[in-house]
Amino acid sequence: MLQAIDLVKRYGPVLALDGFSLSVAAGEIVGLVGHNGAGKTTFVEIVSYLIRQDGGHVTIDGRPPSASRGRVGVAPQHIALYPSVTVREHLTLFGKLAGLRRAALDSAIEELTVALRLGAFIDRRTAALSGGQQRRVQAATALIHRPGLLLLDEPTAGADLETREAMLDVVKQRAGDGAAIVYTTHYLPELVELQATIAVARNGRIIARGTYDELVDGLPGEVRLIHDNEEEVRVSTTQPAATLIDLLGRAERPISTIEVHNPSLDDLYRSLAVSDAP
Amino acid sequence: MLLDTGYRPGPAAALRESLYRIRALANNNTLIRLRDPGQTISYVVMPMVLMLVLKPLYVRAVEGGTTKVVTGLLVMFSVFAISIAGNAILAERTWKTWDRLRVSRAPAAELLIGKTLPIYVVMVAQQTILLVYGCLVIGLPIPGNVPLVLGAILLWAFTLLAIGALLAAIVRSHGELSVITDVGALTLSSLGGALVPLSLMPEWAQVAAQASPGYWALEMLQAAVSGDAAGVVRPAAILLGIALVCGVFAIRRLTRGWGRGGLL
Ligand SMILES: Nc1ncnc2c1ncn2[C@@H]1O[C@H](COP(=O)(O)OP(=O)(O)OP(=O)(O)O)[C@@H](O)[C@H]1O
Ligand SMILES: [Mg+2]
Predict the structure, then answer these.
(1) Which tens digit of pLDDT belongs to each residue from A179-207?
(2) What residues does the ABC transporter domain cover (chain A) (predicted)?
């Protein structure tokens, strides 16, 4: 569905994208993670044809972004809503711009109102909404026309638990319906929950891509044994369970606390993305 | 299922869809205008007050003083109304909503038409209200050729809209925009003879006036209200030229967008 090859984007001396390649299949959720300034938003902007790349190319369903207007749903990282316009009026505007007519529009608004829990403030102006409420509205305006490609740039930034859950449910459902989804976040457990393919960006390129298990498998975890608030042993290991049994058998003093730290996405993130970020 | 199947309509259906999107955009922009009408109201009420106050002065100072005071203040405050257009378009940039619209199915031309149509209506209404007020309250003779007057208003409003769109596309903040529109409007329109009748101004100013769109608007409107169709042609052509140049440039700039840059 989405194919980006070797994208390059320069801002003066800054290389925002430096050979960025990423593909997303229909029905696939790609969780795009990476340090601040890694180029995630720049990638989203190029795919949505808001800015032009200096090198490389992008196709959406075989077509360039310029020929894909309206076929992509974009929820930008920063809130971009009309302050004096109500939530319902926003959904109507974006639905109509995508060509939805009365009945289809009404049912799309109804569906998103339930799914993203907009009911309580659907007739309020967006300027009067909280940050998390605005987030949900922004996502709803991107989802209203059921686009085949969804670009959600930090859709859960600043979101509370309820917003997060609602968002993840909708994203899963849309992927189930066959949409290709790019989902950027700094909150990695979301990607496990979404069963997303994880793509790690660093300094303008993708340096790792795979499922959670593929990426985390083989990373070292950690086992700590503590004796009276005093660390007895700390071992970094790819097999925490076996190591724990072995260590307990050899402990010389009584152990008060055992900590087993299985390798997680955060470890992966740290080992790949953050270690030598600029 | 996903609704977006990439279906491409034939020409008649494409036009219908295009009009549907323009209407949606225009509706949205009308809502925004109606909820924040302050600027519009003041640009209608202020010239009304000034016309009343200044009329005796004009009548004593120049021949046809009533026509001059009405058309002069109308032009001056219609130039101020450039800032309504400018602010409305610039706001789309500061709210970042312009980029949201740019990723929609509506091409740039539709976005611009949908954006500017309600503002155009506001500008035409402003000028029409002021003219009607001029006839009813100030004593401007009722124009013999109403379609001519209406045509002049439509063209002048279009020119102002194009200038406003251009300004909104090149400035970096609302502050910059208001400097240009307030100072620019005052200078251009008074230099054009909107505040003080040109015949009372120094000679150099009378020559310089011709560089101001306000001057040509005044010529056009004065000819139109006195029913002089031939006198309308030249200023109308010049204004149309200005409008097209500004409009084309504004469309090109707004189509390209700014990404994250462009604003202060
Ligand atoms: N318009 C611009 N002008 C100059 N530099 C820019 C511009 N847009 C992006 N950049 C630079 O490009 C790089 C990538 O930025 P980008 O916003 O894509 O990062 P990101 O991965 O989305 O970061 P974050 O997690 O903070 O959102 C950064 O160094 C940024 O400063
Ligand atoms: Mg970003």
Answers:
(1) 999 999 988 889 989 999 999 998 999 98
(2) 2-228
Lookup: tokens for A113: 């109102």
The residues that bridge with A257 in the sheet, in sequence order, are A226
| CA dist., res. A43 & res. A46, Å (int) | 5
Helix (H, G, I), strand (E, B) or coil at A3: strand
Which protein residues touch ligand 1 with a CB less than 6 Å away? A 11, 14, 16, 34, 36-42, 77; B 259-261
SS (H, E, C) A37-93: CCCHHHHHHHHCCCCCCCEEEEEECCECHHHCCCCEEEECCCCCCCCCCEHHHHHHH
Task: Give chain B's radius of gyration (CA, Å).
Answer: 20
Q: What is the ipTM of this complex?
A: 0.86
Q: Global pTM?
A: 0.86
Phi, psi of B258 (to 5 degrees): -125, -5
Asked if B201 and B193 count as a contact pair (C-beta separation under 8 A), the reply is: yes
Residue B7: predicted pLDDT? 59
Ligand 1 nearest atom to the CA of residue B259, by list position: 1
Q: Is the pLDDT of residue A213 over 90?
A: no
Smallest CA separation from ligand 1 atom 3, residue: A11
Kind of pairing between the strands at A149-153 and A14-24: unpaired
In the structure encoding, which two tokens stand for residue B197, read together?
A: 């009748």
Phi, psi of A158 (to 5 degrees): 75, 15
Give me the total of CB pairs closer than 8 Å, taking one residue from chain A and one from chain B: 98
* H helix or E strand, kind and range, residue B218: helix B213-225
DSSP E strands in chain A: the ranges are 2-11, 14-24, 29-34, 55-60, 72-75, 149-153, 180-184, 197-202, 205-210, 221-227, 230-237, 257-261
By the CB < 8 Å criterion, does A81 face chain B? yes
* Domain A2-215 architecture: 3-Layer(aba) Sandwich (3.40)
**Buried/exposed B114-140: b ≥16 CB within 10 Å, e otherwise:** bbbbbbbebbbebbbebbebbbeebeb
In ligand 1, which atom is closest to the CA atom of A77? 27
DSSP strand pairing (A221-227 vs A257-261) = antiparallel
- Choose the closest CB to A94 out of B23, B35, B104: B104
Residue minimizing CA distance to atom 27 of ligand 1: A36
Residue range B80-96, pLDDT digits in tens:
899 888 889 889 989 99
CA distances from B61 to A18, B46, B180, B197 (A): 71, 22, 31, 9
Where along chain B do its domains lie? Answer: 33-256
Tell me how many helices (H) and strands (E) chain B has: 12, 0
* Per-residue pLDDT, B6: 53
Of A81, A97, A178, the CB nearest to B24: A97
